[in-house]
Amino acid sequence: MTIRDKLAKIKPGRITGKGGTAPVGKAADEAGSGPSIPGPSIPGPSTNAMTNLILADIALRAGGALLRRGVERGLLGNRTGAAKAKKIIRGRTMGETLIGTALARVATRSVPGAIMVGGGLLAKTLYDRRHGKSAKAEGEAAVDAKAKKGEKE
User: Fold this and answer.
1) pLDDT in tens, 64-82
2) Which one of 3, 72, 111, 140 is most buried, counting C-beta atoms within 10 A?
3) What's the number of CA atoms in the CB half-sphere (13 Å) around residue 128?
């Protein structure tokens, strides 16, 4: 007995869960997904759906920015202290912020982008480890410069 024979003996309702047969092929395309069952209605701040979508987008972007700042401050705060970390973040230029955002976007949009950005970060890390003392001195000088710039703003 083949699998096809076994499936033929099963009642159609047990396969689809509805008591009838499911449309196949062209009939399934014409039938669509069936009647849509609305979920629980949660009212948004506005009656206009587009306004609600824009508000949701703004809220998500603001939340992402706050989360990013928190993570940056946490990573920098481990070595430099919370107050200095805040000054460093405040002292970043617009170009540095845009480059970081662009690299993050490239890394998250595609596998080759993630490999490229990850490989670059790995190469930079290995380079810094190989040139330990000079890289550490350069990094600390750059951090101090950013912190001083952040104090002014």
Assistant:
1) 888 888 888 888 877 778 8
2) 72
3) 12
